[in-house]
Design brief:
alpha/beta
């Protein structure tokens, strides 16, 4: 299987914590849509004869596009690629963006999974995060989807926010679970370098919560969602049985995918490539009489592939397979990784089950250090 990611690089406002490429100038939208259509046509050969099992509209804010525009993109993808009839088609949404007409159009076009950026239901925390929606708008969108028979709904939650605590986190999880999502992505707030929030942190205008509170919130989220019947299948992802994100899962299991749109990444082993993170350049190159796109390429060496295998597999509940490592890389690799893992197995941060190593709940707290030691 392979996947297709479509980057929609437009936002009405830029959230201060976000480091994904996006612009708040919406004037190039029509040019972007025409350029995207050209890129789809130009790159159709890359996945020739291979079934596309997942399509993911990310951003930016894909829900800023009209339902008709999303439908047109899906139709072009189906014409250019071998999109499976049962493909998972995900649309990231900001609550309050989609009209009922847009919902009907995108569902008719084939969107069968919605990823909604709820983040919080607390008005003060939403303001801190720079979100332009309310908790009630999140509830209203989920209700509209349920009315249309859509059950494959993912809600995003951000925790570890300054000013939050046990009471606000409990209330957020109560509100989240009341909507009965089939999937939840729960992220600890990160101060990504180059973002306005990171700038405010460096200038002392905001203070991150302390490590003890951070771990307490992380454990509470995981334990609460697990007890509610969600499987903790990836460090930041929880799903009811049968509702894991097939597209995101492909990133953790080395499945090839192509990324379309400015700033999008592609992976077809042994190459990784990047579209330019510049919507103006993207449109200018693809709308020429002889279109082209100045993508950046990186060859993945065997050493890089091994490091990425450890990094991605350990993020999942299945963990990494020592025998698979021997088969994919070289004899003795699995044994060396097992030797390096011994201190963490003894401490209980890594669990060894058969030939598989995976993180325990407490091991997730120090996952970066464990991964670094193993590679």
């Amino acid at each position: 299987m392979v996947g297709v990611y479509v980057h929609i690089p437009f936002c009405k406002t830029k959230c201060p914590y976000c480091d994904f490429y996006s612009v708040t100038n919406l004037r190039p939208v029509e040019d972007y849509l025409r350029a995207l259509a050209t890129e789809i046509d130009l790159r159709s050969y890359e996945l020739a004869g291979v079934p596309v099992e997942t399509i993911y509209f990310g951003g930016g804010t894909p829900s800023l596009l009209s339902g008709r525009a999303i439908g047109d993109i899906i139709c072009r993808l189906r014409r250019s690629f071998d999109v499976a009839a049962e493909a998972e088609v995900t649309l990231e949404c900001n609550p309050g963006d989609l009209s009922t007409l847009d919902l009907d159009e995108v569902i008719t076009a084939g969107v069968n999974r919605f990823s909604i950026g709820a983040q919080s239901f607390d008005p003060s925390l939403l303001r801190f995060l720079g979100r332009r929606h309310t908790g009630e708008e999140t509830r209203a969108l989920v209700r509209e989807l349920h009315r249309r028979g859509v059950r494959n709904i993912s809600l995003d939650l951000i925790y570890g926010i300054p000013g939050s605590g046990e009471e606000t986190l409990r209330a957020d999880l109560d509100a989240l679970l009341a909507l009965e999502p089939t999937h939840i992505s729960a992220y600890h707030l990160i101060y990504e370098e180059g973002t306005p929030l990171h700038y405010r942190l460096r200038r002392g205008r905001v203070s991150a919560i302390d490590e003890e509170e951070s771990l307490r919130q992380s454990h509470y989220v995981a334990e609460r969602l697990r007890s509610a019947g969600y499987e903790h299948y990836e460090i930041s992802a929880f799903a009811l049985p049968g509702y894991r994100s097939r597209h995101n899962g492909s990133y953790w299991h080395g499945v090839p995918y192509i990324g379309l749109g400015p700033g999008a990444h592609s992976y077809i082993h042994p190459w990784r490539s990047y579209d330019p993170s510049d919507v103006t350049l993207y449109c200018r190159q693809l709308l020429r009489s002889t279109p082209f796109l100045s993508r950046t390429y990186e060859r993945i060496t065997p050493e890089m592939a091994l490091e990425e295998y450890v990094l991605t597999r350990l993020r999942t509940c299945e963990g990494l397979s020592l025998s698979e490592m021997e088969r994919l890389f070289a004899t003795g690799v699995g044994e060396r990784v097992l030797q390096r893992a011994q201190p963490y197995i003894v401490s209980g941060d890594l669990l060894l089950e058969g030939d598989r190593l995976h993180l325990s709940l407490h091991g997730i707290d120090i996952s970066d250090a464990i991964i670094l030691d193993l590679i």
